[in-house]
Amino acid sequence: MGFLDQSTNNIILDAVLTDLGREALSRNDGSFSIFKFAFADDEVDYTHIVNFGRTVGKEKIEKNTPVLEATTQGNLGLKSKLISFNNDSLTRLPTLQLVTSLTDDILTLSRTGTSSTEPTTETIQVRQVLIGAGTADPDLTDFSYTVTCDYRFLYIVNAVPDSVDDNSISKYTVEADATVSSQNLSSVSLTLAARALSDDAFAEASADGTYVKRPITVTGVNSGASKTFTIRIS
User: Is the entire prediction scored with pTM above 0.90?
Assistant: First the structure.
C-alpha cells in the first residue's frame, strides 16, 4: 500500500495485493484472509529533522517526500518496517554491529568451483549494541534473527532457509547465541559459505571477472534493527 500525495489536501491510498496475496486469493477456497498489516518509512529522509528541527523538519518531510506507488513485490514493498513498543519511556534503541576486524564490512569467500571439495567458510558474529550506559528494555532483546541472502551464491552452513522468493532471495530464521549480556543484549553467530559455481556462471555474475558481490542482511526479530554487509566471492 502506498500513500500518494498529489500536493493537495487530499491523501490518496494506493492499495494492491502482492504476488503472493494474489496467488492466495486465486485459490478461491476461503483460505485468503488479511489478519495483520505493517507500515514502513522507506521514502522518509529524517535528515530534515536533524537540519531543521522537529516542527519545520516534519513539515518538509510531509511536503517534499516523494512517496512511491504500491508494488506487487512483497520483498520490495516494505524494507524499513515501523515497529511499536509498549514502553512509552524509550529514548534509545539498540542497533546491530558486525563483529569483524575487516574494514567496510566486506567479507571474502572463495567459490568451490564444480569439484566436490568442502567449501571455504567464514564465521561471523552480529551483536546488539546500545549506545551509552544502562540496559535495554527486555522487549528489545532479540532471541532470534532473520537473515536474507542470495540463494544462488551464498548459504548458511547447517541451516535450511524458510523460503526462497522469485528473485532467489533466501530467508533464514536463526536462533540467537545462548548468552545474553548484562545490558539485555544478544548476538547471533553465522557460518557462511559460497555455493559451487561454474566458471561460466561466475563470469556472467561478475562485473570484473574477479569478484561477485552480494549483500546479506541480518534483522533482529524483536528490535527490528538490521545490519547489511557485503560478501565478496572470489
Answer: no
